[in-house]
Amino acid sequence: MAKLYFRYGAMNSGKSTALMQVAHNYEERGHQVLVVKPSVDTKGDKMLVSRIGLQREVDILLRPDESLKDYNIDYSNISCILVDEAQFLIGDQVTELWAISKIEDVPIICYGLRSDFQTNFFTGNKRLFELADELEELVTICRCGKRAKFNARKVNDKFVSDGDQVAIDGENNVTYESLCGKCYLDNVLRRNKVKN
Amino acid sequence: MAKLYFRYGAMNSGKSTALMQVAHNYEERGHQVLVVKPSVDTKGDKMLVSRIGLQREVDILLRPDESLKDYNIDYSNISCILVDEAQFLIGDQVTELWAISKIEDVPIICYGLRSDFQTNFFTGNKRLFELADELEELVTICRCGKRAKFNARKVNDKFVSDGDQVAIDGENNVTYESLCGKCYLDNVLRRNKVKN
Amino acid sequence: MAKLYFRYGAMNSGKSTALMQVAHNYEERGHQVLVVKPSVDTKGDKMLVSRIGLQREVDILLRPDESLKDYNIDYSNISCILVDEAQFLIGDQVTELWAISKIEDVPIICYGLRSDFQTNFFTGNKRLFELADELEELVTICRCGKRAKFNARKVNDKFVSDGDQVAIDGENNVTYESLCGKCYLDNVLRRNKVKN
Amino acid sequence: MAKLYFRYGAMNSGKSTALMQVAHNYEERGHQVLVVKPSVDTKGDKMLVSRIGLQREVDILLRPDESLKDYNIDYSNISCILVDEAQFLIGDQVTELWAISKIEDVPIICYGLRSDFQTNFFTGNKRLFELADELEELVTICRCGKRAKFNARKVNDKFVSDGDQVAIDGENNVTYESLCGKCYLDNVLRRNKVKN
After folding, report:
1. Could you give the CA distance from residue A144 to residue D131 in angstroms, rounded to a whole number?
2. Vertex A108: Cα angle to A107 and A114 (nearest 5)
3. What ipTM is given for this predicted complex?
4. pLDDT of residue B192 exceeding 90
5. Residue C195 has pLDDT above 60, yes or no
6. How many CB atoms lie within 10 A of CB D35?
7. How far apart are CA C26 and CA C15, in angstroms?
8. What band does C1 get if pLDDT is binned at 50, 70 and 90?
9. How confident is the model over B87-117, as pLDDT tens digits?
10. For residue range B117-135, what is the model confidence (pLDDT) as tens digits?
């Protein structure tokens, strides 16, 4: 019985690099993979691009109103399904992926953010934390040197705690910084005492 | 910087035993722990009882309208906070625990279910999956011998897929069975083909 | 294909409690387990005893000159093999367990120490770290509150760094204390500067 | 207190890619890393090269008769030490790295093989399994699609079970294939019954 994996991490934790490495490992052995990305992520269009310099074309750009059965996939030829930016899937798409892994016996590895800039789930990662067989964290580094867990948003280089859930990195003066819990409390929530 | 841990699993995965073992490990070394349970879990009242035969009194039965600051706790004397049935916490209580772990530098270990009988989150475990520093799975066994991940509800010994989120095990002909994903699909959702 | 698991930890990390909880989980579902202990561990003879108060009889006390095939086991009736004090197995016994897990398709869970009082392997855990499909750490607490990794030996309540690899806890004035790496360096190796 | 990490895997599990991704994550934040490789690994000389196409120069090629103190390193400027092919370190070098992580408070991440082509340790990874604070597995794919754990050696494209511990991939008709436990038993050890 194949598994549904969710490998999550803050921004800049190397998720796209890791996905491309896994695809490479399969293909090197003569296995075929299927690479999926939610169309909500408009960055790069049909290309996956990692900061470290790797890139690869996506097989399916999945719209929120679609399901994988719209694509008439022959799962018998596919050794692994890889999903990037999986936090942008809708819940039913994750449920479908979970069922595919069990019924078609194909391992599925989803990569995505753990939380938004306010520490809350998106739709896809919420459902992945409910259903995935394996949860594995990818790590990156906070400014203090500890493991970063959170994605703090900056507008004009100042931390903000309000705004829309989705705002593209690099547009409209928005940038992000990956922070550990302590630095997020200090810098975004400005809390250093326990209160409610 | 201390961590917030969430150790989750299906019913009968030994969560209360594990909690009492950790408490024992601390106390054996002369450290003091604080054991908390949400009052929503009425089973056993102020006692934790594990199926394997261990028991222990809870220090705080936390109501949904309370926060830990209502208890004027001196954190300097506490080496670890242990929370049982943490899925029943409300979201703000989890946020508070997370802040306490960072600001008071006290490790906090929450034990709880991963999901309800329909594979959805409760309030407390949703927030724990968003915030906890470490997510660790406790495992139990499905009828087929694989790792059980889901809590299937039975009424009069038949699997049901609808009903209230909370129904006490053993009352009103309700029982639960821990199932793996494949057995949950087969027996509760009665699905063996991929559809939407 | 079933897996060979090695769940390792320092002394007093709750290994025997964890083993008995897993046995309980299987038996509660009507599955049969086989509990094995190397005869080298003379403590408790045929009984497993956990500090927290649980106990259970062992099915096989395995001598260093024996293999499991000496017992003519019908693996078709066994859902899981559980081994306590697995560090005392000899290497060939671990290799045999690994082959059994794959060829007979029976999951095998070994519990044992990670290292001796000088931070070196015993025979069984060395081979388990080479072969086990899953390595999982059980944790206990150091005097400083951090995770303990090492088993420091005391004779007449003073830390020692030389002696036989095996010395029974509680006999001949020997006791053990589980320490984290920093406390082991400070107290046993008396090192606080980097040298060779 | 910083940790010593050992991230191990079979050949072609993406160890060098992962190391370069971590270095990139640190450097992107303005932190400095130190990259070390045992000189025993002559492949690539002072360059790390990953199959997927990344490369980077090593800071220190460490000989078996050297220790890091021979390099007069100012640890206050270094946020992380990264070691590739760590299975080729000698045991004392690993002990030194472990002490550095604790005494100088610098995280150290070692990447290396889990075992040689006969499923036995090298010198460096044996000591890492004894001492590392965190053990994390990197995975690659077996010919059967399962996770590969072992490095099978081929000479003239036939599996062999005897020979020197170190033989360079691609020289003298030697190649390697990463296999899961079942495929290793079937193809290298030619065993499909349990015997001793």
Report:
1. 26
2. 140
3. 0.95
4. no
5. no
6. 20
7. 17
8. confident
9. 999 999 999 999 999 999 999 999 999 999 9
10. 999 999 999 999 999 999 9
User: Quick one: average pLDDT of C146-169?
Assistant: 95
- In this predicted structure, the answer to whether residue A136 has a pLDDT above a threshold of 90 is yes
Nearest to C54 among B12, B22, B52 (CB): B52
The encoded tokens of residue D161 equal: 């079970």
Beta bridge partners of D137: D8
Residue-wise pLDDT for C164-179, tens only, equals 999 989 899 999 999 9
Query: Whose CA is closest to A98, among A13, A26, A5, A173?
Result: A5
Provide the residue type at A191 as one letter.
R
Cβ distance of C25 and B13 shorter than 8 Å: yes
- Residue B88 DSSP symbol: G
Residue among B48, B46, B27, B106 nearest B73 (CA): B106
Classify the C-alpha dihedral D87-D160-C1-C9 as positive or negative: negative
- From D14, D26, D28, residue closest to A25, measured CB to CB: D14
User: Which residues of chain A lie closer than 8 angstroms to D14, CB-CB?
Assistant: 18, 21-22, 24-25
A134's tokens: 């394996």
Q: Do A196 and B133 touch (CB under 8 A)?
A: no
> Which residues on neighbouring strands pair with residue A108, listed in sequence order?
A4, A81
Task: Please give the residue of chain C at the shortest CA–CA distance from D115.
Answer: C130
Closest partner residue to D133 (CB to CB) among C4, C129, C181 is: C181
Type of residue at A46: K
Taking residue D162's Cβ as centre, other Cβ atoms within 10 Å add up to 8
Q: In one letter, which amino acid is A148?
A: A
pLDDT score, position D14:
93
Q: Are D181 and D151 in contact (CB under 8 A)?
A: no
Residues of C with CB under 8 A from a CB of B: 12-14, 17-18, 20-22, 24-26, 28-29, 31, 51-54, 79, 107, 140-141, 143, 145
Cβ pair D196:C69 closer than 8 A: yes
For the question of residue B136 being annotated catalytic, the response is no
Q: How far is CA C26 from CA B144, C82, D110, in A?
A: 11, 11, 38
Q: Please state the rounded mean pLDDT for residues A168-192.
A: 92
Query: Residue C38 in contact with residue C48, Cβ under 8 Å?
Result: no
Structure tokens at C17: 């409690």
pTM here? 0.93
